[in-house]
Please model this.
Amino acid sequence: MTSTPLTRNIDLQRGPLAIADYRRAGGYESVANMLRDLAPADVLELVKNSGLKGRGGAGFPTGLKWSFVPTGDDAPKTRYLVVNADEMEPGTFKDRLLLEGDPHLLLEGMLIAAYTIQASTAYIFLRGEYLTAEKRLRQAIAEAKQDGLLGRNILGSGFDLEIILHTSAGRYICGEETALLNALEGKRANPRAKPPFPQVSGLWGKPTIVNNVETLCNLRGIVEFGVDWYKGLGLGADAGTKLCGVSGRVKHPGCWELPLGTPIRELLEERAGGMSDGYQLRAFLPGGGSTDFLLPEHLDLTLDYDVIGKAGSRLATGTMIILDDRTCPVGMVGNLMRFFSHESCGWCTPCRDGLPWVDDIFRRLERGEGRAADIEVLTDHLEYLGPGRTFCALAPGAMAPLGSALRHFREDFEAHMAHHRSAEDAGGCPWQR
Amino acid sequence: MSSVDDIIISSTARSARELSIAERDEIDHELTLYPDRRAVGLEALKIVQKHQGWVSDESLQAVADYLGMSPHELDGVATFFNLLYRRPVGRKVMLFCNSVSCWIMGCDRIKDHISARLGIDYGETSADGEYTLLPVPCLGDCDHAPVMLMDGQQHRNLTPELIDALLSQPQGREANE
Model:
């Protein structure tokens, strides 16, 4: 048993375990036991009961997602498993740790997921910039094939699985699962209308499950040690552990595996060593660039999906971005708006036209050319680009830091307005003067 | 290919070049991994770029012909992705992260230093053809911000001094010398 099932093998100085060492440490035993003792429906029950929620950002229950794949004699025989390894959420660097640190853990999770949904082909959709991960995954896949853990009739079970590594070429929207499927089919990565959901009609119209890297890396432990152990890892309502990161002006930025339910303060102060000397905490985004700002008063909240949700934000990717007292909040949000504007795929009008509009306002604010109506226009966009108005979650995600910044940092927005200029003050961001 | 394609292609005098044997072999390998030829478009363009440095109109046309796709459809893919270059780039491409954590940690100052040393802004190539500077979305290395990716190497915790050291390496020539 272990209390850190995701990172137990990870030592970045040493590099990832080769398959022999990985197996010596109990690796792939979960697959051998599963293929011998469990039917796909049994594994589905196990994962449902474990309480595992998707670790890519949305936090949707994994077992429930899998259960939407049609079964029975009239269901399509071809199904696909797709790994979302397109980590590109601003401030998020957790899947990189797993991909570079323990690629066999991902392959083992993929075997479990593919067996459960009875997929015989799985694609890993890896972002093109993750070159070290690409090399290590190729090596791991070759080793697993060599050992008969991939290919035909795995361990004599009759179950087949091919894993194909697809490297992308850099677009944030590919992290959206239906856009990812279009990209994998060789098309522009525009999102698709839902329904139909990919579980029913996904890659090339076949039932498809898209899971995040970290989600799949949880599966080995669940099959190996069981549901009670997995639930017991969490300190609060949520089961399991989570990779949590901190970046910004802290003493020791990094990424750690923590029990869900750990207080945010422990992550910031004990793991990340607290704020860098000379800097105070002003606010933070708890789970990447698409989450609402939380404030120092929220530090005693716990890292739980519902707890962070009730506070008005999202745990999402679990990687915190710290806003310190010497960084301009308007500049920080402006940076995020430029990112989302650049990465909009252009498919639907509110996102394609709204985000550049927002971006333009922030560029003017930066030059000290803000107008009195700007705050109102920005506030209007929270609704125009909000949930339900766009094809996918990109623009609503962008509105999360914007809306919360308008609430928490109103005086900083005001300070960027043109009427603050005077003879001695040429305008521009007050933090730059 | 439709007649409309033919007219547009001929009007701009584009023609396909011959794919090299190496390019063809690598594309053929990718074709074994997908049930649909069109799915290989992105990989094929990446393969061509690996060999040629960028994706010219002639390369695009050649790949489209080889995969049985409209060149315009393939160009829709080529122009969608940040890492496919439809214009020539320098021998080294600096993929410079300017997303939020790198911004907080001062990446604009590092970018200004690069711009001053090489005389280039984002999207430009140094006069000696050595370096192209491009912004990229978050490189997922935020605990080492600011970062950039160049020549397959991730450069972390960037400082002006580190940039100076990188640009002074033997294979990198200095633009303002």
About this structure: Chain A has a mean pLDDT of 95. Residues 287 and 318 of chain A are 4 Å apart (CA to CA). The two ends of chain A are 56 Å apart (CA to CA).
